[in-house]
Amino acid sequence: MKAQGSGKIVNMAMASVAGEKGNANMAPYSPVKAGTIGSTKTLGKEMAPYYVHINCVSPALIETDMAKELSPEERTVLTSKIPLGRMDKPGEVAAVVKFLVPNEASFVAGRCYDINGGRSVF
Question: Is 50 an active-site residue?
Fold first, then answer.
């Protein structure tokens, strides 16, 4: 991408609100997510001069098979931390990625987009 002078990378599966806020009883999960966010920001700055845009999305709990493995109590606790009172839907995450990939977002680099119903507002 650097050699061709363009490219788009969106780190999706590796970032999470757990990497920003940390979650009790989730080490080493949270530090790995934090590393992805930090790497995205660093590489986003390094590669921006070459028009390689690197960003990430950081969702809260998403309605996926992984969420189905949680106990009802765990789901309740995690969902209670989200001001909108529900989990992310996969399509909501995809909509942010869809924004980041086309050339209309050509001035966005090194950003991590929170998709978490208001859980992380800063």
Answer: no
